[in-house]
Design brief:
The complex is a heterodimer. By secondary structure, chain A is an alpha+beta fold. Chain A folds into two domains: 204 residues, ATP-grasp fold, B domain (D-amino Acid Aminotransferase, Chain A, domain 1, 2-Layer Sandwich); 85 residues, Dna Ligase, domain 1, CATH 3.30.1490. Chain A is 31% helix and 24% strand. In chain A, the strands form two sheets. Chain A has a seven-stranded antiparallel sheet with strand order 11-10-9-8-7-12-13. Chain A has a six-stranded antiparallel sheet with strand order 1-6-2-3-4-5, sandwiched between helices. The longest helix of chain A is centred in the C-terminal third of the chain and has 15 residues. The radius of gyration of chain A is 19 Å and the shape is globular. The two termini of chain A are 30 Å apart. Chain B folds into three domains: 150 residues, Immunoglobulin-like; 97 residues, no CATH class; 143 residues, no CATH class. Chain B contains 18 helices and eleven strands. By secondary structure, chain B is of the alpha+beta class. In chain B, the strands form two sheets. In chain B, strands 1, 2, 3, 4, 6, 10 and 11 form a seven-stranded antiparallel sheet that branches. Chain B has a four-stranded antiparallel sheet with strand order 8-7-5-9. Chain B is elongated and about 115 Å long. Classes of the chains: A alpha+beta, B alpha+beta. At the A-B interface, α1, α2 and α6 of A face α14 and α18 of B.
Chain lengths: 319, 508
Amino acid sequence: MTGWLDISARLRRAGILGINGRNAGYTLPYNRRDRYPLVDDKVLTKKLAAEAGVAVPELYGLIEIQRQVRGLKELLDKHWDFVVKPARGSQGDGIIVVTGRSRSLYRVADGSFLDDEELAFHVSNILSGIFSLGGQTDTALIEYRVNFDPVFEAITYRGVPDVRIIVFLGVPVMAMVRLPTRLSGGKANLHQGAIGAGIDLERGVTLTAVWGNSIVDEHPDTGNPVSGVTIPHWDALLELGARSYELTGLGYQGIDIVLDRDKGPLILELNARPGLAIQMANRQGLRPRLEQVERHHADLKTIAERVAFAKERFAAGRG
Amino acid sequence: MKRAHLFLLAASLTALALAIFLYKYFVFGFPLAPEERTEVWRVEVRLQFEAEEGSVKAAMFIPSRTGRLIVVDQSFVSPGYGITTEPQPGEGIKAAYSIRNAAGLQAVYYRAVVQPSRVAEQDARDSTPKLAPPDLQGPRLAAAQAVVESAKRQSSDASTLAAIILKQLKTARPEAEESFLLGPQPTNRRLVRVAVELLQFAGVPARMVNGIALAPERRHAQFTHWIEYYAEHRWHTLHTVDAAARERAQQFLPWWRGRAPFMELTGGRDPLHSITISRSYEYSLRTALAQQRQLERKLIEFSLFGLPLQAQSLFRTVLVIPMGILLLVVLRNVVGVKTFGTFMPVLIALAFRQTGLLWGCVFVTIVVALGLAVRFYLERLKLLLVPRLAAVVIVVILLLAILTVLSFRLGFERGLSIGLFPIVILTMTIERMTVVWEERGAAEAFQQAAGSVAVGALCHVVMNFPVVEHLFFVFPEMLLVVLAATLLLGRYSGYRLTELYRFRVLAR
């Protein structure tokens, strides 16, 4: 018991945010309920981003009702590779990344193969809502598969690595890059075994990484060091993050960005309840940074000012 | 501001609940623990007489103004007789049994259930009684004067005066004035009567009380008599037997006051009465309720006890659910246990109430395991979600039926109750588990399933404490305290226990 109290006190001193603290202090007061659908429904998010001129992966097609599943094959035949995802999925559930074909089969990112019928069944499942939060009927998105920038090639096991930035009141406060592993089955989800590497907000260079609940220096599958990698287009990423606030009006959100080899940074999705593992990846608590933004955000009017504030205040080693 | 508001709300909810709770506990005597029992006496008076072919009226006193005892129930058993009760001012209440035509041996009964009362009857309301000095003459007057004079000299107030007069009467030597007043071989009744006369003579309002000593078991109880005198605005009791003897007899039930005979009979002869006393123990709750029926009938009618028994037993279950939910909130938000669905563990816990903990766990495991197998098989058929769920529901029901029959054949009585499992909830659990299984792996699925069952078992244990069930049923206002606790937990923004483990590497 005293051990727990001690850990609790030390965590509080380090400014680590817990789920209850995040909900009570940030998502509840800063995120308006009526804005949630904008980020919970990826179709809406995509539409919103497109209107604002923010780059997103191209949408190949939507499957909204069961009848449309019959036309799936026809739609897919136009594309060699693509991603199928539920519009209201959470934590990366229900996403299938098809990297190519092998005769009549679809090659999936995790190394398995699906036939037409299995893929159609998956889409049906998405439509009936088994991946959506409240179990309500859902829409399936077929979209462009990102050809990720080779910068992460050495530290990724299949799948698509992405950059998660926590944005508070338009100011990027913390970022990490999520690297799929064999354990995560090619998914960039820390809960499922992906690695998260913290990022120095000033220079866009990766710091330490977390895998599960422990700190690692190397990618467990490729053995290459995960720290010290410079992320290209870093300023553009920060700007995307800062702009996402105007996009959704959510005060506290997580923004997932992928780096495409050809198209540059693309917004993959937005999250109104971003996870807290980012603190582990950065070995930093969110709270002191959030409090700084709370104190100063009234003076930060433009996107450039907010990005500059983030780069100045949240550089590595400054917290 | 919001915080203060919340604390204020929680505090006022708690205060309100505690106020009602304490009132019910102290005033009505609702018991805190389900096993608490109190002494209850049943007193039966059998009145027997020979009717003389014609109208008959038998009147007898029934207990009234019983002080620290209370008559919670009384009944008159008398075939063919009409019953009227009439208060006799200053004496008590008389019950009159009357019949137009009766012949031969008659027997009527009066039965009363008596128990100690939490609230003594208010004597303070009495207006000062009128003094009725006895009409004494000649030598009796002189003797009375002598006794009172000597007692007054030795006493300081009405209480000591009464005690001294009684003592003098009891210890009187044969040649003393006291003995003259008492007469030869005085009975207890005579003693009390003379003491009352002397007290009245000395200017202290006094009266004789007729009652019975409540003994655990007595077939032919006799009326005993004692003194009540008025001082300091209330009536005081003074027994003629000494304290030591009284302790053995424990309690006295006052019946009526004054010198009037216990019963009067017209139209009959050879009256004979016998009083039987028996003691039993009843659950305090029932006796407290019975008291209430007399004291505050309205309150009880608008409480859960006013419901039919079936509804009462339903609410016994329903009212413990908030306790399980509170526990669930603590486990989820303070500890950080992962479960399937928000309130699924509480529903599982409710099912456990019927099956028992061990068998409940066994049955849940079997049903979910078999259901999962069927679900994985259905996966291959590529069914749409809703029909697939429906299919699993049907399979789950079939499984429950088969398990019930099997366990009954094998002699497990408990098996009969598994039909009460929340079928749809089980189905959703199976479905959610398959999704988690496929998306996050079997380990995560089992972890969440085990978490759900463990939380369900814990909720079951808490909800099944007899004390908890009893408290929430008897004191439903305690739900406000649970509500207040839940509201406060809603603002708990500290770490979850599992987060301490999760973030422990950051604790520098």
